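Field reference: sequence -> structure
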Amino acid sequence: MNLHKVNEEVFIAQDPIVRLGDEEIAFLKRQAQANARKRARICAHPSNDDALHEMLIAISSDSYIHPHRHLGKSESFHIVEGEVDVAVFDEAGTVVDVIELGAIGSGRKFYYRLSESAFHTLLIRSEFLVVHEVTNGPFDRERTVLAPFAPFEDQADQARDYMRRVSDAVAQRLKGSKP
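Structure field:
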């Protein structure tokens, strides 16, 4: 596979037919482990301006995904490997929904689509999460809104404490939803 390196966590597939498999997953995991944000992706779309964006993304459980929402966009995940709880928040930062996802065979749902502009984050329940993400383009950083109720990525201690609280809230919500 011919990849163009954009930075330590973003690679763009250069081949006219993109083929991704075990080798690319292993590559992404190595890249994610080696960079500061603990995630890496291969973009199957050649440009930020494309109308459709498809990515294979590896994210370490050590990665902090600041709760965020996308204005005027949908996003879907197909889980390739690992397990994750997607926490969805209201405007005040209260967990209002949890989507339990895992690879096929895990007993969890393996696909979700978020069609509304809701704040969400990932609680990765395995060493790595590998997802095939699809969203509509073009990519515009201004259309991603970081939740004001959560710490920023550069506040590592606060982010770790915050994610513990989110994890507790998710556990309570899941416990309350099971008979």
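Note: The longest strand covers residues 52-60.
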